[in-house]
Structures are given as C-alpha cells and as structure tokens.
Amino acid sequence: MAVTAPILIEPMGLADIPGVLDVERLSFNAPWPAFAFHQELTANRMARYLVARVGTRVIGFGGIWLMVDDAHITTFGVHPDWRRRGIGRRLLLELAELAIELGSARMTLEVRFGNAAAQALYAGFGFVEAGTRPHYYSDDGEDALIMTTPNLDDPAMQQRLAAERAWARAEADR
Ligand SMILES: CC(C)(COP(=O)(O)OP(=O)(O)OC[C@H]1O[C@@H](n2cnc3c(N)ncnc32)[C@H](O)[C@@H]1OP(=O)(O)O)[C@@H](O)C(=O)NCCC(=O)NCCS
Fold first, then answer.
1. pTM (2 decimals)?
2. DSSP 95
C-alpha cells in the first residue's frame, strides 16, 4: 500500500469514534461499543486517548487512565492493513509522553497470555512482566499478563525513551 499522506498521532475526538470502532472490530473479540468511547472522551477526566491517522482515516488508537501514579493502558490497536509499520510503537511513545507530562511514575497494562505480538511491542518499549490475572477476559476466560515499565524517570528508561523519540522523529521525516 502506497502511503500518500503522513501518519499523524493526535488526540482522539468524538468525530474519530466511527473510525476507531472499525479498527476495534478488526482487532478484538469483544470490542468496546461507541458509547464507551463517547463516555471516555466526554466524562472521564482521568482518561486520555490518541489516534493515528492518515489524512482523515483512523488507522490506530490507544488510551490511558491516570490512576494515582500509574498510567494504565486501557485499549490499544492498529488496523490490520497498517501493522508492522511502527504505528503501535509511535502510539506507545506518545502515550508515554502524555503519562510523563501528567506526572505518572510508570505505565501498566494487561495483555492476553496468547497475544505475542502485543507483548513483543511492549517488551521492546521496556515493559516487563509483573504478574498475572487468571481468567481476566470475560469473553473466553483467558488469563492476562500484567506488564509494567520501570519508573519513567529511571535513567535506563529515560535513555530508552530518548532512543524512541529519535526513532519516531526519523519515521515522521520519512
Ligand atoms: C499489537 C499491535 C497494536 C501492534 O501494532 P503494530 O503497529 O503492528 O506494531 P509495530 O509495527 O509498532 O511493532 C513494533 C514492534 O513490536 C513487535 N511486534 C509487533 N507485531 C508483532 C507480531 N505480529 N509478531 C511479533 N512481534 C511483533 C516487533 O518487535 C515490532 O518491531 P519490528 O516490526 O521492527 O519487528 C497490533 O498487532 C494490534 O492492533 N493487534 C490487535 C489488538 C491488540 O492486540 N492490542 C493490544 C491489546 S493489549
């Protein structure tokens, strides 16, 4: 697929919801309904959501909840046609930048035990395994792996973030 416009990472707005739902349906067994995103964007002061877009088309999204000093990733997906092009990595970096800006000490998430792709993405960013939640997913009872970053101001994590920023700048200029 030829890329004709730059891929931008921007705050999610209400007008993005239909595009986000398209990616959701192609990414998850139990996608969130439209009202959940509407609620998150309009009524949850602790939530922040981003989209990746090409022109007006949403091709990826992710969100965090600010829970005390944790930025907890709530949902995260990239359209199947756009995977393995670094979009997940760019979204994750922008979510980390938001977390830092809002004073979070670290990032956490749950991921399906069988979701090797997402686990590889998170591990590449510095997330490590921090426990399990048995039968966490209500649709099929699969266990969740809990993953967390080291403290975001830890020197090794700072170094990793600097490397990710340099990589993302190079990607954006391509
Ligand atoms: C997980 C997901 C978001 C990754 O998005 P993506 O844009 O394809 O990821 P990136 O291209 O940024 O990948 C960055 C790195 O993550 C790892 N990775 C991503 N997808 C992978 C896969 N299918 N297999 C193995 N490693 C993978 C690789 O290390 C990759 O770097 P590389 O391409 O240079 O080898 C995407 O596969 C997706 O939407 N999956 C369905 C929804 C989902 O599982 N969401 C996460 C819920 S916790």
1. 0.96
2. H
